[in-house]
Design brief:
By secondary structure, this protein is an alpha+beta fold. Helices cover 20% and strands 37% of the residues.
Amino acid sequence: MKYTEDHEWLRPEGDLVVVGITAHASEQLGDVVFVELPDAGKAVSTGDEICVIESVKAASDIRAPLDGEIVEVNQDIVDNPGLVNEDPQGAAWFFKMRPADMAALDGMMDEAAYKDLIG
């Protein structure tokens, strides 16, 4: 897996990338009560605000980590936002995307670098 400074994880699966938020981000947010996801088929650019997460503490945006197209979203976390707290790096993935350039993952942090970031 790769990680962003915005506390997102990215897991390549063939020509797609599965994206979610890290356990650290989930803990910082507290109890998640609402998730809004982008529509499948949406073209996105790196840095675009594409998801909204609301918790009892705060609201946060998820930004597109890569240029590409959203191909699937996880309806389970819309129906049960608490799943983001229960299994942030597993069942609570946010979306799958087809990146314009898979090589863009090469410049992202690995797990050791992410752990250094969060201390």
